[in-house]
Amino acid sequence: MSTVAFIGLGAMGSRMAMNLHAAGHTLRVYNRDKAKTKAFADKGIEVCESPAAASKGAEFVCSIVSDDVATREVMLGAAGVLSAAAPGTIILDSSTNTPAMAREVSKAAAAKGLAYLDAPVSGSMAQAAGKELVILVGGDKAAFEKALPVLNAMGKMARRIGDSGAGATLKLINNMLGASLTAAIAEAAQAAEAANLDRDAALEVLVEGAAGSRLMRTKLPKIFKRDFTPQFQLELMEKDLRYFLALAQELDMPAPIASLVRSQYQAAKRAQFGKLDSCAVFLQASGERPKS
């Protein structure tokens, strides 16, 4: 087993880190909000004062933070991972970043003798807790193969997609598809309710029909029940759509569907639904307000 530094103990990171602990890896953790480290301290896991402190002596560093800005700080900042990690350390960054950010950190890491893999995950809190995440990896093949025991302790599948930035690219494609399907499910829910259909019957048929998917199974019931407790926050989905559109511009390709869907999420975020689940895009379209 390995010594692993874990940076970012939010809804996803806390569950991923606990799975590493359960698998027998030695953890050292850091989180900006110290309250989120209590469950780890209670298990005797070392809580560190900075990403740099957590990274000293670690064989692997895992990170999952909110965006490019946070990644730049925890990786490249004065007290960041790259300032302290020893040569040979492998960094697994599960944040949803732009491919450009991944490539920038990878280049800086290589200059210090470190291996940086962009390793974002597909799945939400339930999959993180159940070790059922799909992990999309970009970067050096040898480093990926060496990191497999750590990756496999957090997910059911880890695949190398290509060179640096490839994991980040596929994650943005994945989340664009998820956001678009969720917006379509919200529109379908409006139609089913307006037509006064039996909700249970509609749900059963749609889940088993050609459009059936995990999102259909999870998001449509939440909408029907007006349960917008977050599995994946709407504001994070809006950010991922923004990143996808930046990628589309970089690739010089049109993205009309993603542009339309992003406008819906952006409007929902401006309507103060950002902290709710991504399926709260339904509220923006319906004009409803969430129940307190």
What does it look like?
With 292 residues, the chain is α/β, with parallel strands linked by helices. The protein folds into two domains: 3-162, Rossmann fold (3-Layer(aba) Sandwich), CATH 3.40.50.720; 169-286, N-(1-d-carboxylethyl)-l-norvaline Dehydrogenase, domain 2, CATH 1.10.1040. The chain is built from 13 helices and nine strands. The protein has helices at residues 13-22, 38-41, 51-55, 68-76, 99-110, 125-129, 141-152, 166-194, 199-208, 214-225, 234-250, 256-273, 281-286; strands at residues 3-7, 26-30, 46-47, 60-63, 90-93, 115-118, 121-122, 133-138, 155-162. The strands form two sheets. The protein has a six-stranded parallel sheet with strand order 3-2-1-4-5-6. Helix 8 (166-194) packs across helix 10 (214-225) and helix 9 runs antiparallel to helix 10. The longest helix has 29 residues, at 166-194. The mean pLDDT is 97.
Give the tags:
single chain; 292 residues; alpha/beta; Rossmann fold; N-(1-d-carboxylethyl)-l-norvaline Dehydrogenase, domain 2; 2 domains; 6-stranded parallel sheet; 3-stranded mixed sheet; 13 helices
Short description:
This protein is α/β, with parallel strands linked by helices and 292 residues long.
What does the secondary structure layout of this molecule look like, with pairings?
Elements: E1 3-7, H1 13-22, E2 26-30, H2 38-41, E3 46-47, H3 51-55, E4 60-63, H4 68-76, E5 90-93, H5 99-110, E6 115-118, E7 121-122, H6 125-129, E8 133-138, H7 141-152, E9 155-162, H8 166-194, H9 199-208, H10 214-225, H11 234-250, H12 256-273, H13 281-286
Parallel strand pairs: 1-2, 1-4, 2-3, 4-5, 5-6, 8-9
Antiparallel strand pairs: 7-8
